[in-house]
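Q: Hi! First time doing this. I have a protein sequence and I read that you can turn it into a structure. Is that right? Here it is:
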Amino acid sequence: MKEKPNLSFWGLWNLSFGFFGVQIAYALQSANISRIFATLGADPHSLSYFWILPPLMGIIVQPIVGTCSDKTWCRFGRRIPYLFIGAAIAVLVMCLLPNSGSFGMTVSTAMTFGLIALMFLDTSINMAMQPFKMLVGDMVNEKQKAAAYSIQSFLCNAGSLVGYVFPFVFALLGIANTAPKGVVPDSVIYSFYVGAAILILCVIYTVAKVKEWNPKEYEEYNGVKEDVKEEEKGSGNWLTLLKNAPSTFWKVGLVQFFCWFAFMYMWTYTNGTVAANCWGTTDVTSEGYQAAGNWVGILFAVQAIGSVIWAPILPKFTNRKVAYAVSLLLGGIGFASCAFIHDQYLLFIPFLLIGCAWAAMLAMPFTFVTNALQGYGHMGAYLGLFNGTICIPQIVAAAIGGTLLALVGSVQSHMMIVAGVALVLGALSVSAIKEK
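A: Yes, that's right. Below is the predicted 3D structure, encoded as structure tokens:
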């Protein structure tokens, strides 16, 4: 097996640059979906149900993209065709979703239209996102993988920052931040338009700059064995792969369950929490509620900044498991404290702590799992299946969100405490991971 060549900084940068645009789209979705559906008329107790679709599509799409791209060889590459098609669909849907309330439809029809648009948006984002992880695995040598994933992490957080602050910035520029009942404000609609334009430009840049290896070169650099190639042609299946997965795959999956369970409630209930605690309103048509919606984007941006600050500190821990557990514990404290803070600026502190957990969630699971998968083959399929440990907890959290909200007194800020408890349980579960 030939050693993969070293890539220049710009070579590593080009592999992941499109990820910047994909993350803008993902940030706009995660920060504004609850706001959009609440504005359309969704009841807080049913709000979490709208969040079932994104992870459900992720658990279906990412293993398919991983497995199919393992087998795909064409003139445009192995991973890039999926990346480009996903991005193109995402651009179209980003122009439709925020307009769900603008087409003169009834409330129920508008929400159904919004749900279908959300389903296609998350499907396409997942389709575009997965190939970036695989490109690094395919084309970057072991010595440079840390640098490659660091660049990807930087672009991830930078894209998130941009996507999160768009509605706030557009409102500052004078674009309307309120709208008639059932209609999404222009500040949100224009954010999705601009995000869509940036997404397709970034992806076109990566497609133009990255040339994937042909099958012969790939085999030379990745040491694909004949039996592995035969399985990739169809004799392998997901159940067999899961049955043969290393124990670390499942133990990290347990930690992931608590982590993504917690973050689902952050995305679902932060808007209602901030509106009630800091603006004193639950009226979705009010100026205060929409101002709170913009401020949620700022808070999520602060979370991204916290992640950027904490990411370089993680490698300084001598024990990766300790780094992982401490990060999740800090995030749990951040979540729980959100319920008790009534000053919009003081909320920066808990969201910086939440950013510590987010940094660990972006880096640690894939570090543990990819190390454990060395020699197993089917890296694309395994990473697609591992995405289930991200999607399943979100589906569970969304399915029981309305029931839990009723149990905690129908106060949305109390769901942030539930999220904090979940993240603490995740920190405790790190002890089950065994490193080689």
